[in-house]
Amino acid sequence: xxxxxxxxxxxxxxxxxxxxxxxxxxxxxxxxxxxxxxxxxxxxxxxxxxxxxxxxxxxxxxxxxxxxxxxxxxxxxxxxxxxxxxxxxxxxxxxxxxx
Length: 99
Fold this sequence. Notes:
By secondary structure, this protein is α+β, with helices and mostly antiparallel strands. It has helices spanning about 15-25, 55-75; strands at about 5-10, 30-35, 40-45, 50, 80-90.
């Protein structure tokens, strides 16, 4: 299933670094929809990513993996996950981003 992961971190200033880790695990911050002619791009809000063909449980494991990687690589970071929810990303609707 396609899953949206919404999360809150103990230190919001490192979100960009968490997103890089999640991107390496296959998560995305936006998606394209429609026909090639319409090619609409939808950007997700901060602290939200999505991934195709994954379970809710795997998404939770992935966010913890991303946080653990950062904590291991950065001395004294001690980043924790404050809140997290996984949701099915289908069906969905959105407002196209202006690029």
